Amino acid sequence: MKSHNITISDIAKELGITPSTVSRALSDSPRVNDKTKKKVQETAQKMGYHQNVMASMLRKGSSGSIGIIIPRINRHFFSNAISGIERIVNPAGYNLLIYQTEELYQKEVEGIQAFMKNRVAGIILSIAAETTHFEHLNNLQNKGIALVQFDRVTDLVHGPKVINDNFNGAYLAVKHLIQTGHKRIAHLTGAPHLNVYRERLRGYMQALTDHGIQPDQALVFDNSITRDGGAANIGKIMSLNADAIFCAGDYAALGAIQELKNLNIAVPEQVAVVGYANEPFSEIMTPSLTSVEQNAFEMGTRAAQALIDMIENKDNAHDHTDIIPVRLIVRQSSLVSTY
Description:
This protein is of the alpha/beta class and 339 residues long.
C-alpha cells in the first residue's frame, strides 16, 4: 500500500478496530489499553501514517492545524486546558493555533474568520462573555469545519461539548458552608447567560433548598466575577448580614477577602469565603482559599480527542456532552474552629 494513501480509517481496517480507537491510541489516550496502543502505533509506523498527515489534510482542503479560541490565555484554567489539548493533538500530527478573544464577541468572530482563512482542520472553542449570538459558529459548521465547544458552551450550536460539573461543584461548596454553620450565604457570580455561571447558580440554590434554607435573591450578585467585582460588593453583602460568600471564581474571592480585611472583618471567623477554579494563588494567600478544582487539563484532552474523532471519522459529529467531575479543596478561608 502506498504511504500517501494512508489514513486513520486504513489503519482501523487493517486492525479490525474503529477509527476513533486508532485516533485515541495515536494520541496516547488513557482510554485505550497499552497493548492496543502498541499495536496501533506499530501498524501506523509500518504503513507510513505519520509521514503523511500534512498531505492528507491538504487533500481534504485543510492545513493540518487545529485552532483554539479562548477568552483569556493568562487564566490558569485555560492555560492548563491548552496543555491538555496539546498532549492529544501534537502526537496525532496536528499543530495548534491559539486565538484570544478577551471576552469580546467581535474578536471571537474575527478569530473564527482567521482560522477559516487558514483552513484549519477543526476548532476548539470556549465562548466569550459578550457572545449571545451564534451565527458565526453555525456558519463554521455549514462549511464542514469540525467544532468542539468546551467549558463555556451553548446548546444553540450542535456538536460535541466538554464541560465541568458546574452544578455539583457549586452544590459541594455551599453544602460545605452550611455544614460549617453558615446560613446567610451570598453568591458572587458572572454573566447569567453563560452556562458555567448559570449552572453554578443553580447548584448554589439547590444546596440551600435541600438544607432547609430559603434562597434570597438579594444575596446574588451578577457580573461580579473579577477581583474588582468581588471587592465592590462587600459593603452591600455585609449590610445584608451575610456570614459566608460563595464566589463563582477565585478572582472574585480574592477581591472579596482583601476588602473584608480592609474593613477589619475576619475571614473565616466572621465571614467564610469559598472560590471556584483553584487558581495557583488560592493555596498561598492568607487565609488560604477553599476552592473547587475544575480539572482543566483533562477537559482539554477530552475536547481535543472529540475534535480528532470528528475530523477522522465524520460519523462521530453528534451532539454529546462530556461532563468532567470536580472536587472541593477545603482550606483556611471556610474553616471556623468549633473550640
